[in-house]
Amino acid sequence: MFVTLQGGVKVAMPKYYRDQIFTDQEKIIQRDMLRDIQKEQLKKLKKEFDQLYNKNQMTFEDYLESQQLGELHQFNRSLKKRK
Question: CA 20 to 30 Å from 30, out of 1, 41, 48, 83?
Answer without folding.
Answer: 48
